[in-house]
Amino acid sequence: MDRPLLSVGAPRAERADAVRNRLHLLATARGMLAEQGADKLTMDGLAERADLGKGTVFRRFGTRAGIFQALLDDDERAFQEQVLYGPPPLGPGASPLDRLIAYGRARVGFLIGHREIARAALDGSQPVPAGSQTPISQMHIRMLLGQIHLGAANLDVLAVQLTAALDGPLLLYLSASDLTEAAAQTEERIAQGWQDLIQRVCRP
Amino acid sequence: MDRPLLSVGAPRAERADAVRNRLHLLATARGMLAEQGADKLTMDGLAERADLGKGTVFRRFGTRAGIFQALLDDDERAFQEQVLYGPPPLGPGASPLDRLIAYGRARVGFLIGHREIARAALDGSQPVPAGSQTPISQMHIRMLLGQIHLGAANLDVLAVQLTAALDGPLLLYLSASDLTEAAAQTEERIAQGWQDLIQRVCRP
DNA sequence: AGCATAAACGGACTTTACCCCGTTTAGTAT
DNA sequence: ATACTAAACGGGGTAAAGTCCGTTTATGCT
After folding, report:
1. CA B130 – CA B47 distance, rounded (Å)
2. Burial label, B7 (beta-carbon count in 10 A; 0-12, 13-18, 19+)
3. Most buried in the list A90, A96, B111, B190, measured by CB within 10 Å?
């Protein structure tokens, strides 16, 4: 009479063929990305190379940007691993302030390494690029801010702003040429800038 | 024998018909925007309604995002007027710190009022949305930072980061629903957050 | 095993951004 | 006025994103 569903929120697990195709498409996309760059990656091309229908590609990822978001998510998982369980100061064990600085440095490196994917993951019609909703980055920063005892301040808003200060330069303002020619110096300048910013913000 | 050009850099003034069509297209675009919203504004539709060829539209604006960038530029001119020549604390006359705070507040208001255009002006393949190169916003923040005597710090990088902290939330992270339902409160929260952030950063 | 059903698949179709190039015209020099 | 030229115009053509819907298949139940 009653149906033993897996509660209301879980819309039944992903079907096996769907999983297989999703992984296959991601792998194929990585291949094309490595060979030809992000702007040459078309939905038709991906479908053909993966030997699947175009409808399948859209069903899996919804939109072109969705593919890059999925790729980014994937790589971000390894990064999060380090943040959550890795050695300090990035992982737990160091002081919140040191972790915050280390996090920024690590994230800058990650974003520079993934700049092509990260840019392509931006949508314009959608708010946030990767992550389900509030980006992990923002949550982590919010948490560390909470552990540092700042005077009365709206930590939620501050976390959003600091996340933007971290991601914005690489996602919005730095041109591609700034990154290809002297990526290493740029990375160091931004990482250092982050450290200065955080130390100023968190000064007692 | 020699031709009295207007020096090398100036590629000859814009032709009269070009100016006329550009203004006409911008006006038409504003009309369509007000009636139907940004995502319904297509290049073909604009060309037809303006009674011009599609080629002309692309020649003027280069890309779809270019139209929104032009509209934003246009509105930003009035805003800059206030910043450069208006009354303090936004205009000159107040202390740099007060101007910085006032600027952030004003810009948040401007961006919320122009959120649809500003989002549509984002490109993805291009670095910065509006303004010719480094956004005016960034230059202005950079200048005010220079007038505040902070300890040794890379002001160029800091300016980029603060610009991102200001624009990022509205361009990247806040979903449309956050803005339509309680735009006024959101505006106040972000503006207050900016003030807190700046006061922290600029504390002696 | 056989069945029911929701999900996944595929590929034709539509829409839209953007390109190209032959034609027209504003601006200038004679 | 006339001729010349660089720029602007127009609209058909191409490619790629995204939609639709009829067909196929995995999965859970009897």
Report:
1. 22
2. exposed
3. B190
CA B101, A98, A182, B62 torsion-angle sign = negative
Q: What is the pLDDT of residues B16-38, one digit of tens each?
A: 999 999 999 999 999 999 999 99
Q: Quick check: helix, strand or coil at residue B92?
A: strand
Nearest CB among B127, B161, B165 relative to A175 is that of: B127
- Rounded distance in angstroms from the CA atom of residue A63 to the C1' atom of nucleotide C10: 17
Helical H segments across chain A, by residue range: 16-36, 43-50, 54-61, 64-85, 96-113, 115-121, 136-147, 155-168, 176-202
User: How many other C-beta atoms are found inside a 10 Å radius of the C-beta of residue B9?
Assistant: 5
- Backbone φ, ψ for residue B170 (5° rounding): -80, -30
Return the closest-CA partner of residue B158 out of B200, B99, B187, B107.
Answer: B200
By C-alpha distance, the chain A residue nearest B135 is A173
The model carries a pTM of 0.90
Question: Does the nearest atom of strand C lie within 7 Å of B64's Cβ?
Answer: yes
The distance (Å) linking the CA of A23 with the C1' of C5 is 26
Instruction: Give the largest Cα separation in chain A, rounded.
Output: 67
Give the up-direction half-sphere exposure of residue B154: CA atoms within 13 A in the CB hemisphere.
16
**Contact (CB, 8 A) for A179 and A186:** yes
B94 DSSP assignment: B
For chain B, what is the largest distance between any 2 Cα atoms, rounded to a whole number of angstroms? 67
Q: Mean pLDDT per segment of 10 residues, for chain B of length 204 residues? A: 48 88 98 95 97 96 95 94 96 97 97 93 69 79 95 90 95 74 86 97 90
A91-129 burial code (b ≥16 CB/10 A, e <16): beeeeebebbbbbbbbbbebbbebbebbbbbbbbebbbb
**Under 8 Å CB-to-CB from B110, ≥6 apart: which residues?**
B75, B76, B79
